[in-house]
């Protein structure tokens, strides 16, 4: 995560995180969006802190079951991270991993598997095979592959 944020946008972001943990979904989104607005004005739309805000908003949507909104925010974050850090950066892997979680939650197992596999590849290259993020991605990749196979066998509509 990139550091160097202005205190007022960080405050909005932190209040958003706390609000979501306390179950105040509306205030969480309001605060995260306010933090994003400030970051966009300060840094423009190609800055890691802007990507961080999109990621945070995506997390709130994901937690509250809003698949399309979550994926849209994660995708915006991912595009910035790839542009800023390159395609093989751990932050890119984190976005892909979280997108995989959203797809897995809704039984889109083939997409989840692809995203987990890519996050595993990046983590493995950056951190090595024994790192907790690499291991976590490997487990998710294997689980998604197994569930995708089960879906294919059962001819489940969405997998």
Please summarize what this structure is:
This protein is mainly alpha-helical. It is built from seven helices and no strands.
Tell me the number of strands: 0
- Helix and strand content put the structural class at mainly alpha
CATH architectural name of the largest domain: Alpha Horseshoe
> End-to-end distance, in Å?
32 Å
Average the pLDDT over all residues and give the rounded result: 87
At CATH level 3, the topology of the largest domain is: Serine Threonine Protein Phosphatase 5, Tetratricopeptide repeat
- Helical stretch count? 7
Report low-confidence residues grouped into runs of 5 or more: none
Quickly name the level 1 CATH class of the largest domain.
Answer: Mainly Alpha
Count up the domains.
2
Output the radius of gyration.
Answer: 16 Å
Which of globular, elongated, flat, extended, rod-shaped describes the shape?
Answer: globular
User: Beta fraction of the residues?
Assistant: under 5%
Specify the CATH homologous superfamily of the largest domain: Tetratricopeptide repeat domain
- What percentage of residues falls in helices of 4 or more residues? over 70%
Order of helices and strands: HHHHHHH
List keywords for this structure.
159 residues; mainly alpha; Serine Threonine Protein Phosphatase 5, Tetratricopeptide repeat; 2 domains; 7 helices; 80% helix
